[in-house]
Structure prediction request, 176 residues.
Amino acid sequence: MSEPEERSVGRFHIDTLVAIFLVLFCGVFVTASFSIRETSYASLGAEVWPRVVLIFLTLLSMGYLVQSLRHERSAQVQEEAAQEEVPRGLKQWFLKHLNAFWCFLWFGLFLLSLPYLGMLVGGMLFVYVTLTSLGRRDVHGHLVHAAIAVISVGTMWAMFTYGLKVFLPTGSIFSF
Prediction:
């Protein structure tokens, strides 16, 4: 086996360069959010929501930068990377990426079900099925996945429906 490929450019680790790019990228867009035109018909300014998202992304990017600057690969991680099998052939590649294919499949079915189940029920079902297909499949796992689905999707649905007054798809089978 060859040495594990070190992801670096010059003396910088690639994660550090990506983090710096992301921080600069967010900074440009936060600055651009100050030139969003104010409208008189909205109860909430048009610039508020983009700034909230951008500030959150900037904080995450800064955390990524700090983490990448402090990160040193341990000997154990290097040894595991050296022992990792490189997938050969289409079947091994497919098996290595099977979880990603499951996620795409469930998301596609979620999108197809939106007109019938709506955002609330379809979203809860999507989160539950995705977590169950990727995680634990015992009784405790099912209960945890159901709780996560109901709480996360229910909270987001309530925030968009009542807090932001966004009309989400209600569906023809279940309408709330």
